[in-house]
């Protein structure tokens, strides 16, 4: 009966066999922690590590799975990092943000820009003021921020997560809170591992997106475990409450820590979309240029001060979504943008979809019009390639069974007294109508963006 009882317990999950335990950790040999894990702490961490957060049909987050390549180390170190960068870097950031603000201001002179662009302009102006204030204080002692965990990637080799156990214990002082904080920090750091090892790209993500997304992921896992019937559900619920409070506190910080606080906003406002947000971010996290406009737009929406107003947080979320889009053409000049779009359509072998909308003039003119009644009309935008192209014609572009050049000198200048905006709107209407659900065009206020929705 005793044997049968053991088998039954094992089968139904009430008893864990030692050989089934995959969760593991090692001790930092150079800086071993004074604080040794208790059995309760180890059980809590193991329970979190075994939980699987499913994101889509093929993607999931689980620490035990990540431990195939990412080791967990417990350390007695108490490291710190600077809340603000060096004076030289702040000076470069000021110059960078000033240029972005100037470019945005130039675009705001138009009458038809989205209202959100004015909110972005005001937000960046406030951030610029904060950076200049930080620069004036750069020679003073800069506040250091304690680290409770870290993640290091191995450039394709073994990666590692370190829990600074003694630093966590010093922060919490209460043994129960120490256990809960260790769990949240472990989840946060393993989300860095998850984001790094998912998809392709360079090994340096945008930290102003990465840190709040790691906080968001840790909160989502704790929330799911707390709602489960597992034995650690009550502990996960307490850990969630404390973690959410701690992350929201970071919204009052100045410097790099402020961005962490955005994780609380994501959890409180977009928790139901966790699978989409985490999966989307994981697949692009290491592919974005940290100096590209999407990355910088998000950075200066969250740094060096948190956008405390709801409007500011909404703008930051919009910039996060922009960063996660698959941008395939980006140009500030619309003529270059139109040419880039045509080249992209040709590379994708979907340029032929324009063929039914090309009309030939009755007078035998070499010019062709792209039009759809009630939707768009781009007169004389194509030139028959049998006629030698003149200045501002680019091609060849094969559409249907004919070859054309694209005429770019008709877009005009950014002058509200010309028909420039009508042509821009017609071009955007043409692309979104013909390639509905496949391609989309955004106007960011700084430039024009073609997005591949697939």
What can you tell me about this protein's structure?
The protein is of the alpha+beta class. It has 15 helices and 16 strands. It has helices spanning 2-12, 39-50, 63-66, 87-108, 115-136, 165-172, 175-197, 207-226, 233-249, 262-270, 274-284, 293-302, 310-324, 334-347, 420-434; strands spanning 26-27, 53-54, 60-61, 70-75, 80-82, 144-146, 149-154, 157-164, 327-331, 358-359, 367-372, 376-384, 393-399, 402-407, 439-443, 448-452. A 5-stranded antiparallel β-sheet has the order 10-11-12-14-13. A 4-stranded mixed β-sheet has the order 1-4-8-7. Helix 2 packs parallel to helix 7, helix 7 packs across helix 8 and helix 8 (207-226) runs antiparallel to helix 9. It is elongated. Residues 1-21 have low confidence and may be disordered.
Q: Largest beta sheet, briefly? A: 5 strands, antiparallel
Instruction: Give the overall pLDDT as a whole number.
Output: 86
How large is the radius of gyration? Answer: 27 Å
SSE-based structural type: alpha+beta
* Secondary structure tally, helices: 15
């Amino acid at each position: 009966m005793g044997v049968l009882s053991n088998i039954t317990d094992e089968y139904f999950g009430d008893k864990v066999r030692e050989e089934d335990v995959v969760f593991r950790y090692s001790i930092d040999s150079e800086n071993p922690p004074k604080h040794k894990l208790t059995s309760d702490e180890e059980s809590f961490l193991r329970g979190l590590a075994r939980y699987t957060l499913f994101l889509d049909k093929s993607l999931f987050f689980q620490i035990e799975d990540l431990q195939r390549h990412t080791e967990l180390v417990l350390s007695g170190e108490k490291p710190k990092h600077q809340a603000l960068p060096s004076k030289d870097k702040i000076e470069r950031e000021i110059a960078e943000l000033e240029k972005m603000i100037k470019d945005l201001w130039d675009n705001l002179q138009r009458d038809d820009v989205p209202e959100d662009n004015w909110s972005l302009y005001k937000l960046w102006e406030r951030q610029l003021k904060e950076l200049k204030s930080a620069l004036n204080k750069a020679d003073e002692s800069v506040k250091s921020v304690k680290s409770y965990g870290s993640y290091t990637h191995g450039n394709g080799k073994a990666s590692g997560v370190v829990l600074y156990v003694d630093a966590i214990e010093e922060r919490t002082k209460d043994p129960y809170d120490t256990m809960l904080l260790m769990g949240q920090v472990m989840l946060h750091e393993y989300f860095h591992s998850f984001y790094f090892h998912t998809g392709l790209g360079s090994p340096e993500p945008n930290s102003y997106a990465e840190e709040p997304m790691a906080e968001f992921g840790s909160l989502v896992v704790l929330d799911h475990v707390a709602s489960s019937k597992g034995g650690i559900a009550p502990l996960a619920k307490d850990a969630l409450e404390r973690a959410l409070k701690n992350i929201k506190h970071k919204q009052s910080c100045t410097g790099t820590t402020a961005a962490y606080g955005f994780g609380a906003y994501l959890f409180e406002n977009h928790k139901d979309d966790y699978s989409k947000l985490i999966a989307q971010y994981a697949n692009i996290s290491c592919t974005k240029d940290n100096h590209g406009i999407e990355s910088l737009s998000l950075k200066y929406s969250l740094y060096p001060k948190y956008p405390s107003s709801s409007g500011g947080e909404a703008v930051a979320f919009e910039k996060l979504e922009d960063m996660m889009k698959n941008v395939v053409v980006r140009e500030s000049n619309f003529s270059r943008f139109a040419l880039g779009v045509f080249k992209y359509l040709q590379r994708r072998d979907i340029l032929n979809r324009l063929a039914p909308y090309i009309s030939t003039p009755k007078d035998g003119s070499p010019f062709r019009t792209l039009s759809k009644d009630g939707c768009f009309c781009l007169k004389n935008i194509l030139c028959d390639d049998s006629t030698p192209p003149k200045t501002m014609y680019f091609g060849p572009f094969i559409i249907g069974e004919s070859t054309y050049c694209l005429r770019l000198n008709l877009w005009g200048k950014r002058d509200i007294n010309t028909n420039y905006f009508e042509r821009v709107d017609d071009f955007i209407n043409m692309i979104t109508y013909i390639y509905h659900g496949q391609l989309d065009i955004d106007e960011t206020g700084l430039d024009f963006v073609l997005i591949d929705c697939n």
